[in-house]
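Standup notes
- HV: blocked on the assembly model, inputs below
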Amino acid sequence: MRTYVLRRLLQTIPLLVGISLITFLLLQLAPGDFLNQMAENPGISAETIEAMRVRFGLDKPWYVQYAIYLRNVVFHFDFGQSFARHQPVFEVLSDGFVNTLILAGAAAFITWVLAIPLGVVAAVRQHSWIDRALSFLAFVWLSVPEILAALLLLMMAARTGWFPVGGMRSLDYDELDGISQFFDILHHLALPALVVGLIPLASRMRQMRGSLLDVLRLDYVTTARAKGLSERTVIVKHALRNALNPMITLFGYTLGALVSGSFIVEIIFSWPGLGRITLDAILTQDQYLVMGAVLMASLVLIIGNLIADLLLAIADPRISYD
Amino acid sequence: MTDIQRTQAATSGAGLGGPASEWPGAGVGAPRQSDDVVAPQSPAVVFWTQMRKSPLAIVGAIVLAIFYLMALFAPFIAPYPQEEMDRAKYFHPPQSLHWVRADGSFSPRPFVREMRVADMGSFEYEEDPSSELPLRFFVRGYPYELLGLVPSNVHLFGVDAPGRVLLFGSDSFGRCVLSRLLYGARISLTVGLVGIAISFTLGLLLGGIAGYFGGFADTVIMRTTELLLSIPSLYLIIALRAVFPLDLPSHQVYLGIVAILAFIGWAGLARVIRGLVLSMRKSDYVTAAEALGFSRLRVIRKHVLPNTMSYVIVAATLSIPGYILGEVILSFLGVGVQEPSASWGNMLNQARSIRALTTFPWLLFVPGTAIFLTVMAFNFLGDGLRDALDPRRVSGGRA
């Protein structure tokens, strides 16, 4: 097991180098750079821009720039400076990263807290009206894109005034006490988390249903029933435990999807997460900020996949990676 | 139908380790017994028997056919050019059709009512109950070329100038939302088809090569797909978009968007195809084809790839919505199709402000409904196709 984890972690390194290289090359292919937009400002002299170009290292050929970047990351854990924000990339991103994780975490909570009971009910009452209704709703819900769900909820918020229409904190946040601050963020978090969380709900529910149905067909469940156990015990104690295994794996695999899924929602709800930062950075060609953001988002996805594989091995003794 | 007939046997991909879980719906629901197939039937008959069992798929197909026809005949159906602005009618709400006149008498010809701005500041309109703009069919309007060939100026419907018919309202520039929806469909609906055509060609080719030849080619192709799949897709899409300048002419932006989406889309498919091909390579009929001395290319093209077709057809149908949404998101963010050209994405962008959401809801509902219906129709059709092309497979929800 330990060798497996080690091997997987080592495999991540070339992957991350590849991702950073691809991102870097894409940014090099893009016409102009950060300073071009500054050069259009008549208030900034050509000399200043030239000086900045040298300071940022943008005057060097791309492979030298990339080599320097890589060296700084590896040896100094320095992800460069954000041109537009005059701040180290790491600092800018860590705030956004935490905010994205808050959103993704809340969303995952919503998805799973709803998906598992609904899936179990649908499986236990297979072919009943509730199963049919859930299936139909899931089928329709699968076709609602995130962008529409987000705009609809934003419309609801704007019309009713029940929820804030964006941002993460109220204007008077700093004057609130600790508990009110927490609820203030929760209030802002509710709608974006609901969108990101409800989108995958339909498929998770269907998967839970399918997984439990598969298990309920197995012999040991029949044995448990034959022993005279109550249906409740059979399902909760015997069937559900095994039915949850594939769901545990899915949980890890969907971490990456959550990061991608929150991108558009962050922008619509002005949630100050990784997605917003990335979009701004790309529009201003803030080179190192883009690279840092893409790397960070990818790392979540890669680690999510790793966690999924490990959780499966822990949950299911039949699987061993050695 | 020949494609489908040829590929009826193409269902041997069931027992693949990893890739099988990527088959939408794998492990979901109960296996369906194809008990209606007693005597051997032609694949086409099986296909249609199965299709008829899923009315939703047929509804999906009909909806899509209507949408694509409307996009094709957009200039004929649209009452106004997509970029024509009416400075007196910003944020004009949708007009409703009337049959009953102000005096209570019945009008055989439906009409709309003139709407006037009641308050210029808030763009509140009120209906003039005495006005009557009868809807006329096959009227002369602005000139266009039908299907790009036949010059014409006949439009499906319209009202006598200077009145204006705005059944879906107007946007912030006073442009007809219905006309923009129809012209926008030409972009938004074709992005998916063109994108799929490119990425699936790439995916089939590279996945086929990786699976059939193995070795070095396999390693290179698979590492590349891993790399692409490790970057969350929207981050990659946006980064790729940065490569093209923002202010391109709209047909170049269109090509750019298609290229970006196709570049991302091939990787997942290539991995599945590789798995399918790997399992097929060991099968008797491929060994037989090789023993007959056919070239490897011919074996791949004639014997291996056709057997992946039923998977590919279903996967393509189910992935088109992803491409359509890709365009919608890029244009929504302002880095896709640029004004004044219409696309469903930049129409949604008009609904982005709080003001629009509260006061001008049709700006969200019109393109939103079109997007929702299109995505749903593709999902219904894809689900039905999966059942029909492979009756032994599981039916039901998607993964």
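- HV (later): unblocked. Confidence is low (pLDDT under 50) at residues 1-32, 393-399 of chain B. Chain B has 14 helices and seven strands.
- Next: hand off to the docking folks.
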